[in-house]
Amino acid sequence: EAGVVQSPRYKIIEKKQPVAFWCNPISGHNTLYWYRQNLGQGPELLIRYENEEAVDDSQLPKDRFSAERLKGVDSTLKIQPAELGDSAVYLCASSLVDIFSEQYFGPGTRLTVT
Amino acid sequence: AQSVTQPDIHITVSEGASLELRCNYSYGATPYLFWYVQSPGQGLQLLLKYFSGDTLVQGIKGFEAEFKRSQSSFNLRKPSVHWSDAAEYFCAVGARASKIIFGSGTRLSIRP
């Protein structure tokens, strides 16, 4: 069984530029999560989807961040424009049912904003 | 508000020695508790979880954790560590209809 796939693995951009991250969850997993992990910290939830619906986006900075999960499968997280403080690892995870099913994490995208 | 504290930023133990990683949580109701491991360049992997029942929980890779309500703790243990256990370990807490909150992690190094 393939795991959670994320691309790109690494991204370096200048501030004020846009950037997008892509995630393909494990087949059949209804719930998808985007986390941000700052250096030396644990992951922080940005947004959670149940199928196509964003059920928790309270921590998503909506002025510059957006996300979508079309058809309830793949998801894209976008930042526009990026700021220096957005440098972090962006993790995607999926789970079979709800937040307390085991979450399977992808390897993450390391974003560096210069 | 719920929170998780992992007081040890970095721990070094000798291979074959026992290990205990500390985790303290703050939550008003009975929490759901998790331990995840993150190896370099890898995603997080669930080691074990506690929802209810027996307070001593067995996980993968020989790890166990004990839920102590009176101490608000959920410490992770392993009787004998292997070099492959070197990684970052995260404790997390959550509850029904609520998101999971992760601690800041403990980096484990293994001394040959």
Explain this structure to me?
The complex is a heterodimer of chains A (114) and B (112). Chain A is mostly beta strands. Chain A has no helices and eleven strands. Chain A has strands spanning 5-7, 10-13, 19-24, 31-37, 44-50, 53-56, 65-68, 75-79, 88-95, 104-105, 109-113. In chain A, the strands form two sheets. In chain A, strands 2, 4, 5, 6, 9, 10 and 11 form a seven-stranded mixed sheet that branches. The radius of gyration of chain A is 13 Å and the shape is globular. The mean pLDDT of chain A is 93. By secondary structure, chain B is mainly beta. Chain B contains no helices and twelve strands. Chain B has strands spanning 3-5, 10-14, 19-21, 24-26, 32-38, 44-50, 56-58, 64-68, 73-78, 87-94, 101-102, 106-111. In chain B, the strands form three sheets. In chain B, strands 2, 5, 6, 10, 11 and 12 form a six-stranded mixed sheet that branches. A four-stranded antiparallel sheet of chain B has the order 3-9-8-7, with no helix packed on it. In chain B, a hairpin with a 5-residue loop joins strand 5 and strand 6 (44-50). The termini of chain B are far apart. The chains are: A mainly beta (114), B mainly beta (112).
Share of residues in strands of chain B: over 45%
Number of helices of chain B: 0
What assembly state would you assign to the polypeptide chains in this entry? Answer: heterodimer
Mean pLDDT of chain A: 93
Unreliably modeled segments of chain B: none
Low-confidence stretches of chain A: none
Summed over residues and divided by their number, the pLDDT of chain B gives a mean of: 92
Radius of gyration of chain B: 13 Å
Number of strands of chain B: 12
Radius of gyration of chain A: 13 Å
Helix content of chain A: under 10%
Task: Calculate the terminal CA-CA distance of chain A, rounded to whole Å.
Answer: 37 Å
> How many beta-strand segments of chain A?
11
Report the order of strands and helices of chain A. Answer: EEEEEEEEEEE
- Overall outline of chain B: globular
Largest sheet of chain A: 7 strands, mixed
Number of helices of chain A: 0
What kind of sheet is the major sheet of chain B? 6 strands, mixed
H and E string of chain B:
EEEEEEEEEEEE
